[in-house]
C-alpha cells in the first residue's frame, strides 16, 4: 500500500487487494453530522474503522485527534468517484474552514465542479444534476467572495485544452466574477446565474458526437442541429426545477445584442443581463482553449475579436468590466 501526501487531491495510489486508502485531513470533515463514508485511522501499519457511515464526527472527536497529534484520516476508495464523493459531501465545510488555504479550497472546488459537470453531461436526464450544480455554484460564490485571489486560483486550474465540462466550470467562474464586478451582489441572483452558466452547454449532450468533434466546417444541416443545443438544454433542466433565470441563460447564451444570435434572434435589452454576461464569458473561454478544429488564441486576440470584429454582438459595458477582471488576473 502506498500512502500519499494528504494535500494531493484526487491522487493515484497503488492498489492492494483491490483497495486504496486515501488520506484526508480531519479539517475537511463536516463536524456534528453523520459521515457518508466509512472513516479509517492508520495504526501500526493497519487501517481500522474510526467512524462508520452514518455515525457523527463531533467536535470532541476532532479535538481528540488533535491531542493525539493525528489529524489524518482515511477513506476507502474503489474509484475516483469515491474520492470526489467525499469532497462533495464536505464541500461547504471545506470552503468555510478558515484553517484551509484559499488555494487548497479552490483546488477542491474546481475538482468537484468538473466532476459534477462531467456527470451531468454523461447522464443529462438525471434529476439530481440541478441540485448538485446548485451546491457547487453556492460554494463558488462563497469562495470568490472570501478571497480576492480565489478567481485567479480557480481560472489557473484550467488546462489549455477544451473539454465541455471544464469549459462550463470556467464560464461559471468568469460569469459570477463579472456580474459581481458589475455590482450584482444578491446571492439569489448570482446563484441562479451561476447555475445557468455551469449548465449553459448541457444541451450539447444531445448533439451527435461526430458533429461536436468535427475538425472541419459544419455542413448547413449539421449547423442546424448544433444550433438546437440551447433548446435541448432547456428541456433537460426543466426536469430538475431549474430557476427561470438559469433556464434563460441556457436558451439565450448565443443571443447577440444586434439580433444576429440564435435561437430567437433577440435584440438588446430583450436579452437579460445574466444571459448577456454568459455570452461573453462563453465566447472568451472557447477562443482561449485548444479545440479539435482550432488552436487556442491569446487572451489579447480573443478580446480583440470580441471588441472589434464582433462589435455589436456584446454589451460594451459588460465587455469593459470583463477586461477589468482579466487585467486584475494579469496584474496578479
Reconstruct the topology from this structure.
Blueprint: E1 20-25, E2 33-34, E3 39-43, E4 46-51, E5 56-57, H1 59-68, E6 72-77, H2 80-89, H3 91-96, H4 102-122, H5 128-146, H6 150-156, H7 164-181, H8 187-198, H9 209-212, H10 220-226, H11 229-237, H12 244-252, H13 273-287, H14 299-309, H15 316-331
Antiparallel strand pairs: 1-6, 2-5, 3-4, 3-6
Protein model, in words:
Helix 5 crosses helix 8 (187-198), helix 8 packs across helix 12 (244-252) and helix 11 (229-237) runs antiparallel to helix 12. The protein contains 15 helices and six strands. Helices cover 52% and strands 8% of the residues. The protein has two domains: 1-84, no CATH class; 90-331, Hypothetical protein af1432. Strand 3 and strand 4 (46-51) form a beta hairpin.
Q: Give the terminus-to-terminus CA distance.
A: 41 Å
CATH architecture heading of the largest domain? Orthogonal Bundle
Helix content: 40-55%
Report the count of strand segments.
6
Give the domain tally: 2
- Main β-sheet, spatial strand arrangement: 1-6-3-4
State the shape. elongated
The CATH homologous superfamily of the largest domain is called Hypothetical protein af1432
Which range does the strand content fall in? 5-15%
Q: Averaged pLDDT, please?
A: 87
Could you tell me the CATH topology label of the largest domain. Hypothetical protein af1432
Could you state the order of secondary-structure elements as H and E? Answer: EEEEEHEHHHHHHHHHHHHHH
Number of helices: 15
Rg (C-alpha, Å): 21 Å
Amino acid at each position: 500500500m502506498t500512502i500519499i501526501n494528504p494535500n494531493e487531491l484526487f491522487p493515484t495510489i497503488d492498489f492492494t487487494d483491490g483497495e486504496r486508502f486515501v488520506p484526508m485531513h480531519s479539517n475537511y470533515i463536516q463536524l456534528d453530522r453523520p459521515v457518508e463514508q466509512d472513516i479509517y485511522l492508520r495504526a501500526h501499519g493497519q487501517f481500522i474503522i474510526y467512524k462508520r457511515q452514518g455515525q457523527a464526527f463531533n467536535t470532541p472527536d476532532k479535538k481528540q485527534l488533535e491531542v493525539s497529534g493525528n489529524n489524518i484520516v482515511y477513506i476507502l476508495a474503489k474509484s475516483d468517484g469515491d474520492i470526489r464523493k467525499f469532497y462533495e459531501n464536505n464541500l461547504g465545510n471545506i470552503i468555510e474552514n478558515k484553517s484551509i488555504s484559499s488555494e487548497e479550497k479552490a483546488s477542491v472546488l474546481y475538482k468537484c465542479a468538473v466532476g459534477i459537470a462531467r456527470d451531468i453531461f454523461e447522464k443529462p436526464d438525471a434529476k439530481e444534476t440541478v441540485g448538485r450544480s446548485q451546491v457547487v455554484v453556492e460554494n463558488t460564490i462563497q469562495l470568490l467572495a472570501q478571497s480576492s485571489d480565489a478567481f485567479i486560483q480557480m481560472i489557473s486550474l484550467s488546462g489549455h485544452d477544451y473539454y465541455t465540462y471544464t469549459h462550463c466550470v470556467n464560464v461559471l467562474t468568469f460569469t459570477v466574477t463579472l456580474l459581481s464586478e458589475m455590482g450584482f451582489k444578491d446571492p439569489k441572483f448570482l446563484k441562479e446565474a451561476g447555475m445557468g452558466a455551469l449548465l449553459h452547454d448541457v444541451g450539447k449532450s444531445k448533439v451527435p458526437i461526430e458533429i461536436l468533434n468535427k475538425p472541419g466546417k459544419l455542413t448547413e444541416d449539421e449547423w442546424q442541429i448544433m444550433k438546437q443545443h440551447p433548446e435541448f438544454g432547456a428541456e433537460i433542466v426543466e426536469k430538475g426545477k431549474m430557476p427561470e433565470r438559469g433556464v434563460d441563460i441556457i436558451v439565450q447564451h448565443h443571443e447577440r445584442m444586434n439580433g444576429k444570435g440564435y435561437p430567437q434572434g433577440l435584440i438588446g435589452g430583450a436579452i437579460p443581463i445574466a444571459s448577456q454576461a454568459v455570452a461573453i464569458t462563453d465566447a472568451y473561454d472557447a477562443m482561449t482553449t485548444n479545440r479539435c478544429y482550432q488552436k487556442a488564441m491569446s487572451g489579447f486576440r480573443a478580446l480583440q475579436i470580441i471588441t472589434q470584429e464582433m462589435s455589436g454582438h456584446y454589451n460594451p459595458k459588460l465587455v469593459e468590466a470583463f477586461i477589468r477582471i482579466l487585467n486584475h488576473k494579469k496584474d496578479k
